[in-house]
Amino acid sequence: MKFEGNNILSVSQFDRESIAKILQISAQMAPYASRQKRCHVLNGAILSNLFFEPSTRTRVSFGTAFNLLGGFVRETVGQENSSLSKGESLFDTAQVISGYSDVIAMRHPQMHSVEQFAQGSTVPVINGGDGANEHPTQALLDLFTIQSEMMHFNKGLDNLNIVLMGDLKHGRTVHSLSKLLSLYNNVKVTMVSPTALQMPDSVISSLSDAGHEVIITDTMAGNLSADVIYQTRIQQERFASKDEADLYRGHFSLNKDVYQKYCQENTVIMHPLPRDSRPEANELDIDLNDLDNLAIFRQAQNGVLVRMALFALTLGVENQLTQYEKPVNWYTNKNV
Ligand code: CP
């Protein structure tokens, strides 16, 4: 796959080779993200960060990643603060914003809206999440996280046994991750959800058509013994009402008791975050916070590395990083 000048809209764009390239460049970003060195390879470049739906990690880590490579970030947050609220089309918005920027990251609540927007853009567009459809950069950082966590157990991305749990119907992160996992060998995926919130058929097919074992269940007991358990939140914003979302909240809470009963001793716990910590939901209990295998905050940090790599690749500077290195001359205790 050619990255330079191209959009990142869907995980369907990637093959194993292009993913390996992204993960390799992501690892090269670690010294910059941990402030051992800095890199100003994108000095003067401008990122437009357009977030038309709430976000903490994706928005801030896109901005941080661009800043860490020396670039400037311009933000638009919320449809109500943009001229989309006056009836401007995504195409017109893209024509205008791409004239102001070198690259655009965008999140929008409608499925396929980022692809529509990209048709009007003259610069690369990166999908930061389009409704219940996809979240490709999250899937890449999830894969990077799985790879680095599995290294501790001398395992890789092949022969992986993974549980996906929660709202699998609306959770775009698990849709994108499943499609990426289908590219690896001998993957077993157990999908634990309420029947009404099962994974879409098209996503299940992407795994089963590639010859992988897929188990679909609405029961935690006996089904959580895996290398990785990937928990998700009930995506209230995708339901017709809060009352409907309430029907499913709290059914698949993972806490220390459940972990000790049903998971392997070393099962790695992931979650794209945010976790819903309200008592009625509590899908990932804080009593797991002291577990070494709780990877959720390492996972969020990895988002910076992967987004730095995607900027370097789409703007064609991935081979120039070391030429633009400088020392860090301020106090820092950061560590990757
Ligand atoms: N994981 C994720 O997309 O988080 P945010 O919604 O906070 O960006």
UniProtKB/TrEMBL annotation:
PROSITE patterns hit by this protein: CARBAMOYLTRANSFERASE
Reactions catalysed: carbamoyl phosphate + L-aspartate = N-carbamoyl-L-aspartate + phosphate + H(+)
Enzyme class of the recorded protein, top EC level: transferase
Transcription among keywords: no
SUPFAM superfamilies: Aspartate/ornithine carbamoyltransferase
Pfam entry (one): OTCace
Pathway stated in the Swiss-Prot or TrEMBL entry: Pyrimidine metabolism; UMP biosynthesis via de novo pathway; (S)-dihydroorotate from bicarbonate: step 2/3
Species assigned in the record: Colwellia echini
Highest taxon of the lineage: Bacteria
Name recorded for this polypeptide: Aspartate carbamoyltransferase
Functional description taken from the UniProt entry: Catalyzes the condensation of carbamoyl phosphate and aspartate to form carbamoyl aspartate and inorganic phosphate, the committed step in the de novo pyrimidine nucleotide biosynthesis pathway.
Gene3D superfamilies, sorted: Aspartate/ornithine carbamoyltransferase
GO molecular function: aspartate carbamoyltransferase activity
Protein family according to the UniProt entry: Belongs to the aspartate/ornithine carbamoyltransferase superfamily. ATCase family.
Domain (Aspartate/ornithine carbamoyltransferase carbamoyl-P binding): residue spans on this chain: 7-147
Alphabetically ordered keywords of this record: Pyrimidine biosynthesis, Transferase
Domain Aspartate/ornithine carbamoyltransferase Asp/Orn-binding, chain residue ranges per copy: 159-313
E.C. number(s) listed in UniProt: 2.1.3.2
